[in-house]
Predict the 3D structure of the following.
Amino acid sequence: MGKAQKYVLLGDATYPLQDWILKPYQEDENLTQRQLQFNYRLKRAHSVIENAFLRLKARWQILLKCDDCSLELLPTLVLACCILHNVCEAHDNPFNEEWLEGTEPTELPKPCQPAPAAMEDSRAEQVRELMCQYFESCGEG
């Protein structure tokens, strides 16, 4: 869209809109088709992320039991699992669907109440609008 963008995290409606946290438009009857499409694509991206974490935990089940390792070791353990997972995926090491048994999708902690409007960044709406335009220019999907 002619403007360089930095990376953003995906959040749901409970997070404050920031220029580094993308969240969906508030669902109501006034949303435009473009905004509805943006929300749809954000939900699809969330499901891809959830599936990736589920596969990572299924392949490296030590990640299900990290409560018994030291906090200092945890980032290295997770990073090592991510690297090994990517190596396996890159070399077509088959993923065994049976590994998913016993690996339930877990809800990640998130705020219980929507963030106050005062926490929202006015510049962030420009970022969301640019992403909305980008999704529109990509067509359906």
In short: The CA atoms of residues 73 and 122 lie 38 Å apart. The chain has a mean pLDDT of 82. The helical segments are 33-59, 74-90, 124-138.
